[in-house]
Amino acid sequence: MTVSTSIITRPRRLARLTVGRVSLAILALLLALGIISWYARATLLRGAADLWIVSDSPGPADAVAVFGGGIEDRPFAAAEYYHSGLVKKVLVSNVREGRTELLGVLLPHTEANRHVLLKLGVPEEAIQTFGADLANTHEEALALRNWAVRTGAHSIIVPTETFAARRVSWMLRRVFGDAVVIRVPALDPPEYRDDNWWHDEKGIVAFQNEILKYVYYRLKY
Questions:
Q1: Are residues 113 and 12 in the same domain?
Q2: Shortest CA distance to 204 belongs to which of 69, 45, 70?
Q3: What are phi and psi of 15, to 5 degrees?
Q4: Same domain, yes or no, for 7 and 96?
Q5: CA-CA distances (angstroms) from residue 215 to 83, 138, 146?
Q6: Residue 49 lies in a domain
Q7: What is the pLDDT of residues 71-109, one digit of tens each?
């Protein structure tokens, strides 16, 4: 019995057409999703920041603490709280000096924060340091608790950047418990805000680094 060649090739052609149409449909779907993601990226990325960022409203407190790092915003916020009458003391973390600071090439970070505060009109008698040779947020939280116990403080403000606020807030509340009211206002760095952070490389790096650091702190402490 002879089978027509056209009968054999027709199913093959139909199969190729079907595969081609499916491939085109998948490609079109991926392209559509890519276009939607591109135009909706601002909404998605802003939403991701909103889910991550936690922030407390600053209120009257015994002191505001300036942790190491963030010299472009933390001492500025501390000076603002002082001048507005929310606090009467500004505490500066006595952080560990790096090699360039020990050589005198760069100003030690603790001293740099003091200079900024003085330039912003905070009187020298209102500025105190706490701790010694502090290397990370955990050590700073422990040193700040020691200061609170020694002075009988009941409330402290600790301003920090938007993406760091979740980790810093968790660390402080873990160290202090309910003994002291801790407020951690989230500050927008000069380079970016929470609604445009993905436009600046520093914002992208800060967000991804803080996610990793938060996981690390939760596992370690």
A1: no
A2: 45
A3: -65, -40
A4: no
A5: 36, 14, 26
A6: no
A7: 999 999 999 999 999 999 999 999 987 776 677 667 888
∠ CA(77), CA(214), CA(46), 5° rounding? Answer: 65
Residue 51 counted as domain residue: no
Residues 93 and 86: their CA atoms lie apart, in Å, by: 19
Helices (H), the chain: 5-52, 74-83, 99-102, 109-119, 137-151, 165-176, 201-220
The number of angstroms, rounded, from the C-alpha of 159 to the middle of its chain's C-alpha atoms is 11
Indicate the number of domains in the chain. 2
Q: Is this structure's pTM higher than 0.85?
A: no
Say which residue the tokens 């973390």 belong to: 93
| Nearest CA among 157, 168, 160, 134 for reference residue 74 | 160
**Domain membership of residue 38 as a residue range:** 1-43
Write the single-letter amino acid at 124: E
Please name which of 55, 47, 52, 54 lies closest in space to residue 211, comparing C-alpha atoms. 52
Domain identity same for 28 and 98: no
